[in-house]
Amino acid sequence: MLGQSITITQAGAAAPTLTGPTRLPGGSFQFSFTGTAGATCSVLFTMNLALPLSAWTGAGPATEAASGQFRFTTTLSPALPKGFYRVRSP
After folding, report:
1. What residue ranges of the chain have pLDDT lower than 70?
2. Secondary structure letter of residue 16 according to DSSP
3. What CATH number did the domain enclosing 67 receive?
C-alpha cells in the first residue's frame, strides 16, 4: 500500500471502510473512506507508531465528497516517504 499505513477509528459507529489508497501524479497521496454523513473528520500523521496519539501531527481535515464518503489528500515529501495515518471523527 505505497509504504503507508492507515488506521480509521470512529467512536460509536460502525467501522469505516477504506477505499482507494492512491499515489497521485506530482507526489500526492490520497485515500477515501466511509463514515457518518455530516461528520467532521481529521487526519493525523506519524512516522513512529510507538508515539502516543497525542504526539501525532495533524495532517488536515478530510472532506466529505458525497454523503458519508470522505477523501483525504496530502503531498508526500521525498524526505518522508513512509508514514502512518489515522482518521479521527471528532
Report:
1. 1-15, 78-81, 90
2. P
3. 2.60.40
